Amino acid sequence: MTLTLRWTSRVLLVDGDDRLLLLCGRDPRSPGARWWFTVGGAVEDGENYPQAAVREVWEETALSLPAGRLSPVVWTRQAIFSVDGRVFDQYEEYRLARVTADEVRGMNVRTEEARYGHRWWSAAELAATAETVRPKRMASLLPDALSAVGLDRAPVHLGNVNEDTDPE
Fold first, then answer.
1. What is the pTM assigned to this prediction?
2. Residue 39 and residue 43: Cα distance in Å, rounded?
3. Would you give the distance in Å from CA 21 to the centre of its chain?
4. Is residue 7 packed enough to be buried (19+ CB in 10 Å), middle (13-18) or exposed (0-12)?
5. pLDDT digits over 33-84, tens only?
6. Separation between Cα atoms, residue 25 and residue 43, nearest integer Å
7. Per residue, what are the HEC states of the chain?
8. Rounded CA gap, 126 and 145, in Å?
9. pLDDT tens digits, residue range 124-160?
10. CB-based contact 27:83 (threshold 8 Å)
11. Integer angstrom CA distances of residue 153 from 2, 57, 159, 160
12. Whose C-alpha in 20, 51, 55, 56 is 20 to 30 A from the C-alpha of 110?
């Protein structure tokens, strides 16, 4: 199988109750396999990471979010995974953006990426779920990311993981 290199910009969209928006994904070749992931996606030619984040937020939620509302990078991660018969080696940068109640009401999360569902999760709900959430340890990582916004901190590297073989 060919390994596809991919660079992505991901956004931790957080509402006024510190709940995180996650989208649900499934692999058409693995019936029943599903996981929850943050808004975001590939950095396209000519884009930088914040530009990709803004575009992805728009494509996945219909929210027009200015790049200035994005935090500095809070996490980075390198992940190898397979989906739909393709193997990806993906570098990810995560930024946080808080959204207002009016913005949440105005979102339209009915896109291709969210075809299997979306949900706002609290850290407690993430800690209690048996569902697969990417990145791993989201429940324990989220509170620190929320408190770090606005501080001059280096991003936390979540590691190099192989999601197909690394245990939960």
1. 0.90
2. 13
3. 9
4. middle
5. 789 999 999 999 999 999 999 999 999 999 999 999 999 999 999 999 888 8
6. 19
7. CCEEEEEEEEEEEECCCCCEEEEEEECCCCCCCEEEEEEEEECCCCCCHHHHHHHHHHHHHCCCCCHHHCCCCCEEEEEEEEECCEEEEEEEEEEEEECCHHHHHHCCCCCHHHCCCEEEECHHHHHHCCCCECCCCHHHHHHHHHHHCCCCCCCEEEEEEECCCCCC
8. 14
9. 999 999 999 999 889 999 998 888 665 567 788 787 7
10. yes
11. 36, 24, 17, 20
12. 51
Measured distance CA(151)–CA(72) in Å, rounded? 9
Phi, psi of 87 (to 5 degrees): -110, 130
